[in-house]
Structures are given as structure tokens and as C-alpha cells.
Amino acid sequence: MRLQFLFGFLFGLTVFTSCDSRTEAEKIVDKAIEVYGGDIYSNSKVEFDFRDIHYTIFKTEDRFEYVREFSDSTGNVKDLLNNDGFVRTVNGAKIDTLSEEWIGKYSRSVNSVAYFAYLPYGLNDPSVFKTSLGETEIDGEKYDLIKVTFAEEGGGEDYDDEFLYWIGAEDSLIDYMAYSYHTDGGGVRMREVSTVQEVGGIRFQNYLNLKPADESVSVEKMQELYEAGELELLSEINLENIKVQPLDK
User: Fold this and answer.
1) Alpha-carbon distance 81 to 156, whole Å?
2) Residues 24-38 pLDDT 10s
3) Which InterPro entries does this chain map to (predicted)?
């Protein structure tokens, strides 16, 4: 009987451990997503204003739809980016004369705002590669440092961007992030959380957007520059008038 029990216990333990094949980085990110909103993300439509532009976002594991709306000298502009591609309309009429270059620019712009607003939810996209760089410390707080890169296929035109996320070892909150980018001249940035809003069960964060004097430095250098006070404030990233609407099932 003891042998049967021991065999059953060991078999169950083996099955349990083999089922969870996630890496350490994946476990850390999964916990952060739960803390920030978990399943609420994929069951909600989110609206907010950013720099006088209205955004509407919907995203699940396999579908997404990002909309931004604003008015300019041409009229009422609506940009739509989803699994099928990018479409711009002005006063309700589709614009068919956009070049591939401008389609790319508009798509990157819409996607960038949606990506940051929905962090850390998008870090589980299939095109995302996550690596744990171990534990670090800022201002006496311990963080798990996660590096994120992207697959060329499915990673978008800016797939070669690199991101770092400082995720609290105790609370799983992302207090800092840094990234390098290569489009539009390239550069490197670091963001520090300034204020927090919780709406409809989702945690949204505003940021101070910081830059180094030399933007050719590696993204791994940003913590050192931050702690040395060698980053300057470039802008503030603030989401306003946030609404979270549950989707009908």
C-alpha cells in the first residue's frame, strides 16, 4: 500500500511539474498580468484620451482592434488597425491614396499607444520573447528585470526594438521600463510611473518619459544613467477619461 501511495504521489508530482513548462520570465509576467487586470483585458473594450486624440482598444489572444479618432484641417479622421490591416477614413470616406510608407507610420503610431496603455497584457503575444535578467534594485526596492524582444514574423515593422521591464519582486508592479527603437531615427527611452488609475478592474499607469543625452547607448545602460540622475524629462505620458466597458458574452 505504501509503495502504491508513493508511486501515485511521485507520478502526480511529475505530471504537475511537467505541465508547468513556463520559464521564470513567463511566470513573472503572468503574475503581473493578473495583478493588472487578468481576464478583464480580453473581456472589455477600453476607451481613453491621449494628447487630444480618442482611442478605443479591444484585444484578445488572437484578435485586436485599435481605433483612434481626431479632427484636423481635413475633417474628422478615424484610423482603424486590426488583424486585417490599417484603414483611414476622413468624414466617413475611406482614403485609398495612402502610400505604404504612411500606412506604416500611422500603424506604428496607433499600435505604440495601444501597446503602452495595455501593459503588461501584450507581453504574452506569440511574437514576444521574454528573458529574465535576474534581480536588481532601485531606490531600495527589489525588482525582477525582464528583457523583451520580438520575432521578425508577427513582431511588426519595429520587431528589432528591445524592452526592459522592472517588475516588483513583492508586488509584481512595473514601476520602470526602458526601450530602444530604430524607426524614425532611433533612440532609447526610460519611463518611470508617475500616477496610477484603476478603472473597471484594470490598472492604468501614467509615466514620465526620460531620455539620455547620448541616445546611442544600449538599453541595458538606462538604469545606471537613471540612478546617476543623467536622464532628462522629455514628456509626460498621461491617459485621460478612461472607460472600461465589459463585452457582451
Assistant:
1) 12
2) 999 999 999 999 999
3) DUF6503 (IPR045444)
CA gap 93, 132 in Å, rounded? 47
pTM of the prediction? 0.86
* CA neighbor of 129 nearest in space, from 25, 18, 16: 25
pLDDT digits (tens, 9 = 90+) for 165-212: 999 999 999 999 999 988 777 899 999 999 999 999 999 999 999 999
Structural domains for the chain: 23-246 (2.50.20)
